[in-house]
Design brief:
About 3% of the residues have low confidence. By secondary structure, this protein is an alpha/beta fold. The protein has ten helices and twelve strands. Strands 2-1-3-4-5-11 form a six-stranded parallel β-sheet, sandwiched between helices. It has a six-stranded mixed β-sheet with strand order 7-6-8-9-10-12, with helices on both faces. It folds into two domains: 133 residues, 3-Layer(aba) Sandwich (Rossmann fold); 132 residues, Rossmann fold, CATH 3.40.50. The longest helix has 22 residues. InterPro entries: Peripla_BP_I, SBP_2_dom. This is D-ribose ABC transporter substrate-binding protein. Pfam families: Peripla_BP_4. Belongs to the bacterial solute-binding protein 2 family. It is found in: Cell envelope.
C-alpha cells in the first residue's frame, strides 16, 4: 500500500529522532571539558576553607577542572567573580554568597548566562534563580545550642549575645533560635547584644567593652565560632574564664577547647563538608542529565558538639566521623 504524505513525514521524524538519540549516546560526557567555579568568603575563616577544599576535592575526584575564588563578603567583588566565571565558560558555580539580598543580582546573572548555581551555607531571598540552596538548619542549630547553654548556667543569670553580619539572614535566624529558648526562662536576662560581624578580632574587642560594663555575666552566646573564639580570649585576658561560651559552626579550634578545659563549652556543628559535597554531587548530576531530582531548598541539620562527643568530630572540623 502506498504511504500518504503525512505517513512519510512521520517516518522521517521517527528516523531523525532515532539518529539524534544514537548521536547523543555516542557523545561521551567528559568532566575534564567542564569548569566548576567555587566562590566563598575568605579562607582565613576555617569554615569557608573547609567548604572550598571539600568542593574542590569532590570535583577533581570526578574529573572536573576547578577554580576557587574568594569574595571577601563583598557583593561587588562577588558579582565581578561571577562575571569572570561566565567569561571563563564555567559549567557550574558553587557559591557561599555575600548576602541574602545583595547576592540576588549575581545569581541571576549566572542563570541568564545558562550557568547553574548551587548555593551552600547561605540562602538568597529569592526562589527559582539558583538550582539548589543547600543550607544548615540554623533554627534547629541555634535552638539546640541555647538549650545546652541554659542547662550549663543553671537556667539563671545574666548573659551576652554576639550576633553575626546584619546583612546575613543566617545571623537573624540564629538569634531568633537562641531567643526562642532563652526568652522563656524567667531567671535568665540578656544584658548586652551586639554584632561582631562573624569576625574573631571584632568578637574580642566587643567582648572587652561588654565585660567592663557587665562584670556579672554567666555566659556568652556567639552566632558563630569565630566570634566565640574572640569572646573566649577576651574573657581569659580579663581573668574571667569561668564564663560559659557557646558558638555555632564546628571550628576545629573551638572543638579543641570543648574537648579540653574550655571556656567554650559547645558548638552547633554545621556540616560544611557535607553541604559542599552535596552541592558538587548535584552539580555533577545536573551537568550529566539536566536535572538534580532534588528540591531547590534543602536543609541540613546541625550536630550539637559538647565534651561528650567532641572526639567524633572529623579532623579539621565541620563534619562528623
Amino acid at each position: 500500500m502506498k504511504k500518504s504524505f503525512s505517513e512519510h513525514l512521520f517516518s522521517l521524524a521517527a528516523l531523525s529522532a532515532a539518529l539524534y538519540a544514537t548521536s547523543a549516546l555516542a557523545v561521551e560526557f567528559k568532566p575534564s571539558d567542564h569548569l566548576i567555579v567555587i566562590i566563598t568568603p575568605s579562607h582565613s575563616n576555617a569554615f569557608y576553607k573547609a567548604e572550598s577544599d571539600t568542593a574542590q576535592a569532590a570535583a577533581k575526584k570526578l574529573g572536573y577542572r576547578t577554580n576557587a575564588l574568594v569574595h571577601q563578603d563583598d557583593p561587588d567583588i562577588q558579582l565581578r567573580l561571577v562575571q569572570t566565571a561566565i567569561g571563563d565558560n564555567a559549567s557550574a558555580i558553587i557559591l557561599d554568597n555575600a548576602g541574602s539580598d545583595s547576592s540576588i543580582a549575581a545569581v541571576k546573572r549566572a542563570k541568564e548566562a545558562g550557568i547553574p548555581t548551587f548555593l551552600i551555607d547561605r540562602e538568597v531571598n529569592a526562589n527559582g534563580i539558583a538550582t539548589a540552596q543547600i543550607v544548615s538548619n540554623n533554627s534547629q542549630c541555634a535552638t539546640s545550642v541555647a538549650e545546652f547553654f541554659a542547662e550549663q548556667v543553671g537556667f539563671k543569670g545574666e548573659y551576652v549575645e554576639l550576633t553575626g553580619r546584619t546583612s546575613d539572614v543566617n545571623a537573624h535566624v540564629r538569634s531568633e533560635g537562641f531567643h526562642r529558648v532563652l526568652d522563656q526562662i524567667p531567671d535568665m536576662k540578656m544584658v548586652a547584644q551586639q554584632s561582631a560581624n562573624w569576625d574573631q578580632t571584632q568578637g574580642y574587642n566587643v567582648m572587652q567593652s561588654i565585660i567592663q560594663a557587665n562584670p556579672n555575666i554567666v555566659g556568652v552566646l556567639a552566632g558563630n565560632d569565630t566570634m566565640a573564639l574572640g569572646a573566649a580570649a577576651a574573657l581569659k585576658n580579663a581573668g574571667n574564664d569561668k564564663v560559659i561560651v557557646v558558638g555555632i559552626d564546628g571550628n576545629p579550634d573551638v572543638v579543641r577547647q570543648i574537648a579540653g578545659a574550655g571556656p567554650i563549652a559547645a558548638t552547633g556543628l554545621q556540616q560544611a563538608t557535607k553541604m559542599a559535597a552535596m552541592a558538587m554531587e548535584q552539580a555533577d548530576q545536573y551537568l550529566r542529565t539536566g536535572k538534580t531530582d532534588k528540591p531547590e531548598k534543602q536543609s541540613v541539620d546541625c550536630v550539637l558538639v559538647s565534651k561528650n562527643n567532641s572526639h567524633q568530630v572529623r579532623e579539621g572540623g565541620f563534619g562528623m566521623q
